[in-house]
Amino acid sequence: MLAEYLPTLLFLIVATGIGIALILIGNFLGPKRPSPEKLSPYECGFNAFEDARMQFDVRYYLIAILFIVFDLEIAFVYPWALVFRELGVFGLIEMGVFLALLFIGFIYVWKKGALEWE
Amino acid sequence: MNLLFELPPLPTLRDTMLIVPELMLTLFACAALVVDIALPRGKKSLTAWFCLVGIGFVALALVQQYTLNADKLPVDAFYQMARIDGLSLVFRGIFLLAAALSIVLSVKYLDVENEQRGEYYALILFATTGMMFMAIGSDLISIYIGLELMALTVYVLVGYLKRNERSNEAAMKYFFMGIFSSAVLLYGMSILYGVTGRTNLGQISEAIAGYTQNGQLQGEGDPRMMLILALVLIGAGLLFKIAAVPFHMWAPDAYEGAPTSVTAFMSVGPKAAAYVLLARVLLFGLGPLRDMEGLPGWSIMLGVVAALTMTVGNIGAVTQENIKRMLAYSSIAQAGYIMLGVLAGTQMGYRGVVFHLVIYTLMNTGAFTVIISLHRKGIIGEKVDDLNGLFAKAPGVAVMMLVFMLSLAGIPTTAGFIGKYFLFGSLIQSGKPWMVYLAVIAVVNTAISFYYYARFIRAMFLNPLKEEAPLTLSQPMRVTMAVSAVLVMLFGIYPQPLIKVADLAAKSISTVYAQASGIASN
Amino acid sequence: MTFEQILFILFAGIVVGGAASVLLQRNPLYSAFSLITTFVGLACLYVTLKAQFLGVVQIVVYAGAIMMLFVFVIMLLNIRDEDTAVDPNRFLVYLTIPLGAILLGALLYVVTKVNLAQPTGDEGGTVERIGTNLLTKYLLPFEATSVLILMAVVGALHLAKREKE
Predict the structure, then answer these.
(1) Which of A58, B26, B115, C149 has the highest CB neighbour number within 10 Å of its CB?
(2) Which residues in A lie closer than 8 A to residue B30 (C-beta atoms)?
(3) Subunit contact C147:B126, Cβ cutoff 8 A
(4) In degrees, to the nearest 5, what angle opens at C-alpha B86 toward C-alphas B84 and B87?
(5) Alpha-carbon distance C37 to C39, whole Å?
């Protein structure tokens, strides 16, 4: 059974190999004549305003965590989709309950205004 | 598409009926979220009363479940994922009691903190749902999901006052320690699964018992070392949730920093839930590992932990000035006493565990209600000195606090004494010398505890009044406090009704445990 | 050495190497990226153990979503080099080495002592099998999971949401 994954493994090896090779070739063959101008961050012609590492707003975090929740949901829905016919109505109800609870969460998040970018 | 394997039989309506209390509680928690959205600002405390009504209905469903199944217990549901027996029935009752009491005392506290919000009560219900799943769970997977549902909710509740630095710090500490302990627990569970190939506790017990027959190891290799490793890891994870020494370091910080209403909740509900897990896993799943020839079983490990927990808890409490910290150490010590009943392994011991947990829920939330009443706008009210002269100002409250303190100390005629009598007595009854020594340690510890419980009493009755501002007490708080105090006194004089309830749970443990050890000794 | 053993050593090496890199990096962002390596290695190990679905979920959920959250949090905190000062309790770090060694030793000792049962059958964790089990045998924990997720949404919203006033 593992043999079925041989192409995948080969693909991984080749992809990693090409990636590493490209970086190495660039490093070894490319001419390097650095100057302070060249090494400064590129920002459309003018000098950089601030450090590139700026603090993120906590609002991104909220969006990220909501994304994860619904991403997780997919991981649960997918296996059900494959045996949907065999489980029939019963499976539909079960999944319905699962999704209904998450739907309440979605409504709650919406009504609380967490999806708005104040 | 045809499946390459057979479809297992589907769960039936009967399975669903057996988890009606959990389903109802989940529904009420979701409905509380909706109610919270619908209510205008300033009316959010109505969610609390809605949740209380919900808890009342769930309690009715629980009683109904008992009356319907009383002669068939234990009943398994959902492919043995859930088990309805005396243990789960009684403990779910304890959780509902803890949740109801803490909701009552939260309303006023959140008003004072100006953080009145509906999701607080919904979160309490979610935590209670998690605990109920823990109580009925008889499979490592369902137990773990329930545990995480409870634990995650309590992390959020500890950090509920997000503008308060102490609350944030407490939540952070508790969260990091908590997820670490969950990881340790999960590691232990995975090893247990790896050795036995089962996740169901009953099947694990059978598999373990099958390794030894007539004292001889069956098959090649000795899986017992691996099982001990799993036992130690699982035990460490669960003892963390109970706040047993040496896994207690988080408790004083988390208890002190958390909103007092949450401290009251987490010192009773989640603690009782962790106890039901400890009982389930050790007695139902790892029963055959209790005592082993030539290797340390869990009874001796738990004995050492219990002795340490009582001693460290009581000595730690003596030097505290902050009431919440003092009660944190006191609850560590109480956890140590309760452990003794699990250790003794007799009907009397299990009865003591349940009896003491019920009483502990009443007296601890009662004591926290008094602390909450000391907390007013601009007054933190968490030092022992803040109790000064309480008797002169509010004699009724002071007398009730006196009852709770005497009961926590275990003075005769209070219910706390009866609980301790069963717990310590079961050890002496067992007749094993080391258990008798343990009982002696417990008695010495009780004597130490008198010192710091007496400090409260001295402050209330003998010291002069310091703060004139009136107490923050709502009418429902007074009523629940009075009912708790009366029950604590009543069960101290006439404990029979509670003993009957406790025996319902105790019997379900001792029958299963007798079967398990029966397999082991064959 | 069989092909499977070679694969195991390769992937286990990636996992352990990634995990070591998480600890050794000074910049928390690099640690987070090293953790992705660990997750990918774990996913490969799952596939060799015939748990293909778990492998895919490991990549989608862990290496994808969870790591994104990690990176968000690191950027949210915006730790600069000067903030990552050495812990004053440096001795604790050295204390972990013998303690970790003891735990590892105990584990190795125990593992060599035990003859673990061989897995029976050639079932594997196909998606169909997981789907059926999830909705029949493990229905209760499955539905409880959705309560857990709902609670997580409510909790995260409360802690991370900014107040209006």
Answers:
(1) B26
(2) 101, 104
(3) yes
(4) 90
(5) 5
Between CA B28 and CA B56 the distance in angstroms is 11
The model's pLDDT over C66-75, given as tens digits with 9 standing for 90+, comes to 888 888 888 8
What is the token pair recorded at B267? 């010192």
Spatial CA neighbour of B357 closest among B52, B92, B63, B66: B92
Q: Are B389 and B330 in contact (CB under 8 A)?
A: no
pLDDT in tens, B411-469: 988 999 999 999 999 999 888 889 999 999 999 999 999 999 998 889 888 888 877 77
Residues in chain C within 8 Å Cβ distance of A102: 146, 149-150
Contact at CB, B26 and A108, closer than 8 angstroms: no
User: How many Å apart are CA A41 and CA A17, to the nearest integer?
Assistant: 30
Domain ranges for chain B, please list them.
16-521
Which band of pLDDT confidence, cut at 50, 70 and 90, is reported for residue B1?
very low
Q: Is A70 on the interface with B (CB under 8 A)?
A: no
Taking the whole predicted model, whether its pTM rises above 0.90 is answered as yes
Q: 1.10.340.30, 1.20.58.1610, 1.10.1660.10, 3.30.565.40: which CATH number matches A2-111?
A: 1.20.58.1610
Contacts of C94 (CB under 8 A, 6+ apart): none
Q: Say which CATH topology domain C1-82 has.
A: Four Helix Bundle (Hemerythrin (Met), subunit A) (1.20.120)
- Of the residues C50, C103, C113, C154, the best mutation for testing chain B's interface (the one with the most B CB atoms within 10 Å of its CB) is C154
